[in-house]
Specification:
Elements: E1 2-11, H1 13-23, H2 28-34, E2 40-47, E3 50-58, H3 59-63, H4 73-88, E4 98-109, H5 113-123, E5 129-130, E6 133-137, E7 141-145, E8 149-155, H6 156-162, E9 174-182, H7 183-193, H8 199-202, H9 205-216, E10 225-226, H10 228-236, H11 242-256, H12 260-266, H13 269-281, E11 297-298, H14 302-305
Antiparallel strand pairs: 1-3, 1-4, 2-3, 4-9, 5-6, 6-7, 7-8, 8-9, 10-11
């Protein structure tokens, strides 16, 4: 449900004094390591005359498992308070935090590395720009980003390898969808809708569902992937008019020549949306599996991620 979150907390003089009196110039993260606090890093900085700390929190590391549920909140809060108590002598600092980032995520285990690579290639055919989100493509990942929010689809195990980092057991063979909500979005939500910028307010299934559905469904078609011959046969079997069947095939051919952007350039916006909706209704993805892979079918990952 959640991967990483960031909290911003204002510090008072007594908090700075506690740290100096107890640890001198020892680095904060060395202090946390000494007390075996894992999954939390703290950066202290000053915007004179006010001091702050930024906490970056890896929730699966705190829980020592990949699956994060809404009822884990109390345990996570206690752990964060313990870290603040160790460094600044005041666990109640937590109650003053402002949430500055939260990453919602959905993991799908696909043990076959070759299949993971095929999924990455297929998702490269998504539109470059959807609403206010611009696409950036990397070797094993894909970003759709605006100023305050971005969506990522990537091979988590391969990302760890590329960075030469330890692969946690819950990251092995995993394809990950993330919706990363940044500070500006959270501030806007508070200003426009009165949404508290607190971890508790965003640490729930309702918020997870809202962000995964609202943003992923704007980018990813939800249908299963097929080879063109298989897709052609499926369209032929649909209970719709011959004219619509031919139009669907033409749309798929247009996508296969490039990407969804190719289709978007060749159709009006309303017609493009009409066909995407039609394909979604029939559970068929207009992006086809290239012949070189000799596969007729791959299950949609998106329909598992959205609720």
């Amino acid at each position: 449900m959640i991967h990483t979150t960031e909290l911003l907390i204002k510090l008072d003089y007594e908090h700075l004094k506690f740290r100096k009196d107890h640890y001198g110039k020892e680095a904060i993260n060395e202090i946390l390591h000494k007390y075996m606090i894992k999954g939390i890093s703290i950066v202290q900085f000053s915007n004179k005359p006010i001091a702050f700390c930024k906490m970056v929190i890896n929730i699966p590391l705190i829980l020592n498992r990949g699956n994060v549920e809404e009822n884990d909140y109390e345990q996570v809060e206690r752990y964060i308070k313990a870290a603040l108590s160790i460094v600044y002598g005041d666990k109640q600092l937590f109650n003053q935090h402002n949430l500055s980032r939260i990453d919602y995520r959905f993991d799908i285990e696909i043990s076959n590395e070759n299949i993971r690579e095929i999924y990455v290639e297929l998702f490269r055919k998504l539109k470059k720009k959807t609403a206010h989100l611009k696409k950036k493509i990397y070797l094993t990942s894909q970003y759709h980003q605006c100023k305050s929010l971005h969506i990522i689809f990537y091979d988590k195990e391969q990302e760890r390898r590329d960075k030469n980092e330890y692969i946690e057991i819950w990251e092995r063979g995993v394809m990950r969808f993330e919706v990363c909500v940044d500070r500006n979005h959270l501030k806007n939500k508070k200003y426009r809708k009165g949404e508290p910028r607190s971890l508790k307010n965003y640490f729930n299934k309702e918020k997870y569902t809202e962000y995964m559905n609202n943003y992923m469904l704007n980018i990813f078609p939800t249908g299963d992937f097929y080879s063109y011959p298989k897709l052609e046969a499926m369209i032929a079997a649909l209970d719709i008019s011959t004219r619509v069947k031919l139009q669907m095939k033409e749309f798929v051919k247009c996508v296969s020549k490039g990407s969804l952007d190719t289709a978007a350039k060749n159709y009006s916006a309303s017609t493009y949306r009409k066909y995407l909706k039609l394909f979604n209704e029939f559970g068929i993805n207009p992006i086809t599996i290239p012949p070189k892979y000799k596969l007729d079918y791959l299950e949609s990952l998106v329909k598992k991620a959205v609720l």
